[in-house]
Amino acid sequence: MTRRKIQIKKIDNTTARQVTFSKRRRGLFKKAQELSTLCDAEIALVVFSATGKLFEFTSSSVQQVIERHHLLSSDFDKLNHPSLELQSFCMSPLESSTSAALSKEIAEKTHELRKLRGEELQELNMKELQELEKLLGSGLRRVRDAKCEIVLKEITSLKWKGSQLMQENKRLKQMANRQVQTLELEQGQSSEPIGNFIHSNPSQDHDSSDTFLKLGLAFPSGI
């Protein structure tokens, strides 16, 4: 029988959550101990429960492992992010001036973007605020024009779809009318021989009765 897969989400029941935490913590520490023993790995685990209680496991010393982690992380950051002084030293004069110009332009554009968002407006005077308002108004008009264009396209598309539906409805209605006319015509043709037979019988009965009257004979009992 296969085990039911447990859904990974927070356990609402406090007692069940504490029991699960205790079981899984012991299992985690056991796996860490096995990994350290089998692979001669230096491991440190630090766990805080929901109540704030500290649990830890280490193959040597938690403090020693943490210090080693900080040392390696610092060296790794230095390798991936060299200092600006080192970058400037390695660059040629042309590259250095180009980099400085790009950095200045990026800073200016970032500052302009913040002003467009309504940030850092305290340092602007009345004229600069009016220019910013004019720029925002122009941008707002372009946004509205683009929005109106999209709405008009959607309206045109809906009208076209409505026209297509009306034409399809008209075609189906004509088809239904033709089917009704065909059915009525077939029913009329099938009932015509019966009508002719009914209309022909009275004349035959009248002729036979006249014949018997002229001869002075009695009518047959079956007539």
Automatic annotation (TrEMBL):
Keyword field contains Nucleus: yes
GO cellular component, one term: nucleus
Record's protein name: SVP-like protein 2
One Pfam family per UniProt: K-box
Record localization: Nucleus
Entry keyword Cell membrane: no
Residue ranges of the region described as Disordered: 189-209
Residues annotated as domain K-box: 92-186
Organism: Prunus mume
Molecular functions (GO terms): DNA-binding transcription factor activity; protein dimerization activity; RNA polymerase II transcription regulatory region sequence-specific DNA binding
Domain of life: Eukaryota
Polar residues bias (residue ranges): 189-203
Any one of the GO BP annotations: cell differentiation
Keywords: Differentiation, DNA-binding, Nucleus, Transcription, Transcription regulation
